[in-house]
Amino acid sequence: MDLEKILPKDGPPINEVTKYIEKYKNDLIVIKYGGNVLIDRNVFNNFITDLSVLNKLGLATVVIHGGGPRIKRKLEESNIQSKFIRGLRVTDKNIIDIVESVLIDFNDDIVNSLKDKGTEAISIHTKNNNVIKTIPEAEELGFVGIPNEINNEQILNIINQNKIPIISPLGLGKKNQTYNINGDTAAMAVAKSLKSRRLLLMTNVDGVLDKNKKLIEEISSSEVLEMIKDETITEGMIPKINACLDAVNNGVTAVGIINGTKPHSCLWEIFSDKGSGTLIRQ
After folding, report:
1. C-beta separation of 224 from 238 below 8 A
2. pLDDT in tens, 132-146
3. Burial of 201 (0-12, 13-18, 19+ CB in 10 A)
4. Geometric angle at alpha carbon 93, from 145 and 175, rounded to 5°
């Protein structure tokens, strides 16, 4: 394998990469890519490059993508006002149809962009290879679901063909009704179900910061709970962190929160000694 040809020039050093390829070669890495990070096309292309590199190096990855900003734009174009309860979009019949079509378009965009790089990926969503069964989260939220069953076999089958499963945060409930799922929740459910070695949450922040706004490189569950208690971790970060704790307490070895807007942050996190964000372990 000619690593010099595969790796980007501004990525991690080859000697470190070699060591980590060995470390992860029989493991699964689940990557959640937030819709907020993917608005900028350069950032999107950078992510596609990283995914393609991981695939060419023989690492097994599963991707769950978001799509919030694209959904917001589409709803505004259609003059539909969204209402939020506990940070989740109230989703009626009209909205779920729009959400579904936007997320499927985005999914196709990722799959086609990977194909252009010579990497095979397979779309997974409610109209194609659905792997997530859901139950309604709360009646007041409408068609917002919680995953209650993941089809591991179907995902692993794709991975065994050296292809990347690209999963939309959508699932099917009773009578094949489509439900919208919070992206982080969908990623956690998949990572827990597959007992992945790593779950990477790509966001637009550097990771978890301490009281002095300095990045914390590694942290345990108990330390995280302390930080929520003393309000070092607040607001929007709390649901993300709770989801991370849920994952590491249920079979995922570690979760990384990293800044997806930085060049090759995915490769730096997996293939370098210093990593690129905050690693949360049990």
Report:
1. no
2. 999 999 999 999 999
3. buried
4. 60
